[in-house]
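Box 3.1. Reading complex inputs
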Amino acid sequence: MSFDYILETRDICKNFGKLAANDRISLKIKRNTIHSIVGENGAGKSTLMNILTNIHKADSGEILINGKEVKFKSTIDAARQGIGMVYQEFMLMKGFTSFENIIVGFEEKKGIAIDFKESRKKVERICDEYHFPLPLDTLIDDLPVSVLQQIEIVKVLYRGAEIIILDEPTSSLTPQGIRGLFSAIRALRDLGKTVLFITHKLKEVFEISDEISVLRDGKLIGTYQPSDVNPQKLANLMVGREVILKANKAPHEVGETVLKVDNLSVYDKDGIERVKGVSFDIKKGEILGIAGVAGSGQQHLSEALYGLTRPKQGSSIEFNGEEISRGNPLDRHKNRIGYVPQDRIGSGCNVNGTIWENCIMGYHKARGFDPPWLLNYKQAHDFSRKVVEDFDVKIQTIEDRVGSLSGGNIQKLIVGREFSQQNILLIIEDPTRGIDVGAIEYIWEKLLDFAAQGVSVLMISHDLNEVMQLSDRIMVMYDGHLYNAGNYLELTEEQIGLIMMGGSLHE
Amino acid sequence: MNKTTKLGEEFKINLIKYSFSLFAVLLIGSLLIMAQGENPITAVSSIFVGAFGSKVNFGNTLHWMAPCMLVGTAALIAFRSGVMNLGLEGQIYFGALAAGLAGYMVELPPIIHPLFCIVVGGIAGMLWALLPAILRLFFNISEVISTLILNYIAILLAELFTILLMKFEKNMSVTNIATTKILDSARLLVLIKGTNATSALIIAAVILVVVYLVYKYTVVGYELKQVGQNLKFAKIGGVNASRVFISIFLISGFIAGICGATETIGVNYKFISRFSANLGWDGVMITRVAANSPGGVAVVSFIWAAFKAGAMHMERNTVLNRYVINLLQAIFVLFISIDYKMLYTNYKERKFIKSQSLKERD
Amino acid sequence: MTEYLKAMINPVTFSAAFRLGTPLLIGLSGYCFSNKVGILNIALESFMMISAFFSLLGSYLFLNQYIGALFGILSGIVLSIIYGILVFHLGANGLITGVGFNLSGWGLTTMLLVAIFKTRGAANVDASYFASIDIPFLRNIPFISDVFNNQTILVYISPMLILISYFVMYKTPFGLRARGIGLNSKAAETAGIRVIRYQWVSMIVSGATMGLSGAFISLNTIALFSENMTSGRGFLVLASAMVGKGNPIISMLVAYVFSYFEALTFTWSSFPINTQLIQMLPYVAVLIVLFVTNFKNIKNAGDIDQ
C-alpha cells in the first residue's frame, strides 16, 4: 500500500449557531479496516459524517483521501471520491423497485436515455461479488428491514464506494440480523473496502472493530485498539463520567388488573392486518415492556389502544372492567389513560405553540375548566408551571415556543403533561429515543417512581436495554403477534432477541 | 429579559415585512403608472380623495369595508386552522342568490326581513361549503382542487337558477341576468345617506368581534388554533378533528354566504349574475396580509375598502383604470407572503459565521 | 334525447375535444414533472392567462403568430421564475402565492387590455393567428378526417409533446430522478440529486409549456383575448395531473375526458338545454373523475390528515 491512511481529516470545525458540533477533529482511518466511531447522542458523530459526505460544509479544516486533499463541491463529489454512506433511516424511495433505488442518481447512460441493460449488469455483478441476493424487480415497499439494508449497501457499492460509512446500522435489527450484518461488513473488508462503523453500543464495538475512535462534545478524545481498552473504560471516555445506563429498579408488588386486551386486531389504511389478535393485561403498578423490531405492529397497537384507529370487530379492550375499544382519544383522557407517542415533534407537541398551550392539551377537556367552554388562563398557567417544575423542564417563561427547547426538554414536558393528570395508565412509546443521558436517567427514574405509586405503564420501546431495565414483565412484538418474554431479568438479551426475530426458545 | 428581546425581534421583522412590501409595491406601482403616462402622485391623491374626500366618498369606503371584513373573517377562520377553503367566491354567490330570493319571495316586517335574508344567505353559503368538506372527509379529495373547481360551477349554477326562476330566455345576455328587486322591507339600513354604507358594517363588526373572543377566551378557540398548527397532536389530545374540520368549513361558508347576502340586500337590491368580481379572493388576501389575526382583518379590510372606493375615483379622474389597483393589491400580497423571519434568521447566521471566521483569521 | 346522444358521437364533438384538449396537453407535458417533484402549483391559471395575453400582444406587434407563441413561452418562463424565487427561496406559501398570482393575472391582463387595446372585456385585434392545416393524406379517410384534419399546428404537436414528456419521465435519468424526488426527496439528496435544481427545471419547463398553451388560448384560429379567458383551464391541467399522478399518458387521457365535455358546449349549444348547464360540464366532469378515482378512500372516511 502506498498510503497507510485512506481517509484523514485535519482540524475539522463546524458550528451550529453557538454550538460547536465539531471542534478541530483530526481523524485517521487506515485502509482495509473496520473503524468504529463511538460517542453519545450529540457528540458530533453525525455532523462529522455529514461533512464527509458533504451534506454539511465544514467551517474550516481539510479532508484527505489517499493522502491528497479533496474539496467537495456537491454530494456527488463525495461519492465520486469513494465515500458512501448508509444512513440510520434508510434513504430509499418507496414506489421504486430495488433496482431503481440502487441506480437512481448514478444511471449508466446511452445518449440522453438511461442504459437499463448496462446498469442492470453492473448491479448484478455487485450482488454476485458480495453475495447479496436481492429481488431487483420487486417494489421495496414490503421488503423486510434486513433486505432494505442490503439494498443500501449495494447502492453505495454501485456508486463505487471504497469507504463505507454505516450510521447506527444495528438499531432496527435483531441480534441475529446484526450477526448477518457483521459478517457482511467483514466480507466487505476482506474484499478491500474500508468500513466506518458509527454506533453508541459498546458491545458491538468490541465485536467488530479493528480500531475505535471516541468523540465527546464535538472533540476527538482518541483512537484506540480494541485490545487496549475495555467496555468500562470506553464508556468513561464516551461520557466523561462514571455512568453506565442501569435503572435502579426496586422490586415491588403489583395489584389487580387495570387493562385487559383480548383478541385485538388492527388493520392499516391499506387494509393489511398489522396487529393480529393479541391478548395481554396490565396490573396496577406494573410496567409492561413491549420490545420488538421497528415496524412489527407497535405503532398500530398503541394507536388502537389510544382510540386513534378503530380495531377490528371482535376485539376487546377492557379498562377497569369497562369495554372501551370503540372510544376515542378524548374518552381515553377522561378514563385517565395518558399517551406519550413515539414521534415527539410530529404528534407529541406543537412546536409553534407556547409551553402552556402544549401542557394543557388533553387536560383542557378531560380535566377541564369551569365553565367547560371558557379558557381559564390562570388555571392553564398554574397547571403548566406545575408540569414544568415537577419535571425539571428548563425554560424561561411558559410563553416560550416549544420549538425553542431541546429534545430532552420537550420529552420531559410531554411525559410531565401525561403524568401530572393523575393518570391510572400510561402508554408510552420510546420514552428516551434520541435524548441525552441526563434526560434519559431522569425519565427512567420518574417512570419507576410513578409505577411504585401504583400507576400502570405500557412501555413500547425499540431499545431492548430500556425494556429490560425497566419492565416488570416483558413481551415481544413480532409480525403483529405478541409473545411472552418473561419477567424482569428472567431472560437474556440473546433469548429475547431470538423471539424478536420470530424464533422460539424451545427449539 | 430574554422575552423582551424576542418580542422586539418579532416586531422588527414585522416592521421590515410591512414596510418593505409597501415600499416595493409603491415602487412597482409608480413605474406602472408612469408607464401609462400618469403622475403617481396624482394617482395616489386621486385614490385618497376618492376614499376619504367627502362624506359620500367615505361612505363608499365604509360600504366596501363590510364585505371585505366578512369575507376576510370567513377566510381567517379557514386558514387559521389549516383548512384551504379557496371556494369563498362560490359560497358568496350562493349566499347572494338565496338572500335575493328571500328578499322578494317572503314578506316580513323590516329589521326581521333583512336578518332573515342574511341567515338564509349564510345557510346557502354553508350548504355549498358542505360539498367540498364531504369530498375531503369521506373521499380524501383535496379541498384545494375541489373548491377551485366548485367556484366555476357555483357561478354558473346561480346564473342557471336565476334564469329558470325568472323564466328568462336561454340566450339572455349574461349582464342582464338578475332576480326581481327585493322588497323595501328587506333592505339593510343605510348609515350614510347617498351611499351604500349600511348596517352590513355593524353585522360584519359583530361577527369579527365574536370570532376574536372565541379565539382568545374559549376552549374551542384553543382547539381551532392547535388543529391548524399540528393536527396529529390535537387529535391525540382528544380533539375531534373531523368535527373541527367540517365545522370550520361550514362556518367559513356561512360567513361567506352572509357576505354575499349583504351585497344583495345592502347594495344591489337584487341578485346580479357575476356581481362579485373576485370578492372571495379578496378575503384570502386580506387574512394573509392580516397574518390571520382578527384585529388585523379589521385594519386591512379598511385599507382594502379605501382602495376599492378610491380606485373608481382614480379611474374617472386620470387616464388609469381601476385594474391597476387590483394588480398592485395582489403584488402586495406576494411581497407579504415572503417568509421574512426565515430570511432574517439566515442572514443573522451568515453574519455570525462570518464574524467567527474573521476572528479566527486574527 | 336522441339528438343529444347523436351530437355526443358526432365527429364534430370529437374534433372539438381533440382541439380543446390542446392547452391541457401542452401544459401537462411540462407540469407533470412539477407534479412528480411535489409542486402543487395553483398559479398555472395565471401562467396561462398572462401568456395568452402576451402571445396576442407579440403576434399583434410582429404580425407573426410564431413570435406571438414565443412571447407566450417567454412570459410563462418569467412567471415561473418569479414563482420559483418566491416559493423555493423566499419561503412563501405556495397556495397563497398561487392566489396572489391568479389575482395578479386577472388584474394585469384586464389592466393591459384597457391600457394597450383600449377595450374592456374583450379584444378582437388585428394579429396573425395559427390557421388550420389541411393534411392531404387524412382528407379522404372518413371520420378520421373529420376529427383530426384541419386543425392547427399547436393541436398536432400537443400529443407529441406528451410523448416526449413520457419518454423523458420514464427513460432518462432526469425523469427517474424527478420521480425519485417525489417519492423521497431526502433520499434523492443523498443520491447526489440536487432537489432544488430539479424543482427549478420542472418549474421553468412547466412555465414554458403553460406559456405555449396560453398562445393556443389567444391565437388558435382567431386572435382574441377576453377577460378571464382561460376560465379555469389552468386548474384543469392541475386536476388532470393530480388524477394521472404525473404520468403524462394517463394525465393526457384524463385531460381528453375534460375536453370532451367542453366540446359538448359547441355541439349542444343549438339545443334547448341551458347554456349554463353545458358550460358546467367540464367542471362537473373534474369533480366526477376525482370522485371516481378517490372512491376507494371511503373506507378511511372521517379520517383527516394533512
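In summary: The two ends of chain B are 33 Å apart (CA to CA).
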